[in-house]
Design brief:
The chain has 228 residues and is an alpha/beta fold. It has 7 helices and 7 strands. It has a 7-stranded mixed beta sheet, sandwiched between helices. Strand 3, helix 3 and strand 4 form a beta-alpha-beta unit. Helix 4 packs across helix 5. The chain is globular. The C terminus is likely disordered.
Length: 228
């Protein structure tokens, strides 16, 4: 019953978000056919603005449960909406075992987990070194990873810009891949997994947004370009 409520509320929200975004944004979306329509999936994106989650949700053909900083759940109205929509609260920059278990349960049930692996929005518009949580969950579950890149939202100021300006937003979906499921998870394979995931996201972005994961930091792993 709870799962049904989450599903109904999620798609109801997506419907009105699509209506708002139709007037407020011009969206250039490519690679959406790469997204598996069912089964466990970890959707990983860069993060430039609070507008990113609703925009990604509105153009992705899956119900997404984002790992969301727990402070939002204490906010009137918004917190209730997040709970009803099936979002998962997480303590950022900490070993949150409750969030880890909830994320793993979601994937075991065949759900789509949304993660912004850097842990917070970029303040300067470029990618920063990611936290290890995304790779850890991927290694523990063996779930496929769906790299996603978004840009164009970095100058949006919510809610002021929602009806006062029209923003060109770009979303790219790469090819899903897995990190495998090792018998023993080590710090080294978590670090390597994090690098692989973030390089896959960076490969979908224009060079100026790649920051810490720019080409001069090492070769970009050719997982998918999302430009087909």
């Amino acid at each position: 019953m709870i799962k049904l409520i989450h599903t109904l509320f999620y798609w109801a929200n997506v419907s009105w978000m699509r209506a708002i975004l139709f007037f407020d944004t011009s969206r250039d979306v490519k690679g959406r056919e790469n997204v598996p329509r069912n089964g466990p999936l970890i959707l990983v994106s860069n993060h430039l603005n609070n507008a990113d989650p609703p925009i990604i949700s509105s153009v992705t053909p899956r119900q997404i449960s984002f790992l969301t900083k727990q402070e939002w759940f204490k906010t009137p109205v918004v917190g209730t909406m997040f709970k009803l929509g099936g979002m998962i609260p997480v303590r950022r920059f900490a070993a949150d075992l409750h969030a880890l278990r909830a994320a793993q349960k979601l994937l075991e049930d065949g759900g789509c987990l949304g993660m912004f692996a850097e842990g917070t929005r970029s303040k300067d518009g470029v990618m920063h070194q990611a936290e290890p949580g995304t790779a850890l969950i991927a290694l523990r579950t063996g779930a496929p990873i769906q790299p996603v890149a978004i840009w164009g939202t970095e100058t949006v100021k919510l809610p002021k810009d929602m009806l006062l300006s029209r923003t060109k937003v770009y979303v790219r979906y790469g090819k899903p891949f897995t990190l495998g499921r090792p018998q023993r998870i080590t710090r080294e394979n978590v670090e390597d997994g994090t690098e692989t995931i973030m390089k896959a996201v960076a490969a979908l972005l224009p060079e100026k947004y790649r920051g810490y994961y720019a080409d001069d930091k090492g070769a970009v792993r050719k997982v998918g370009t999302g430009t087909d």
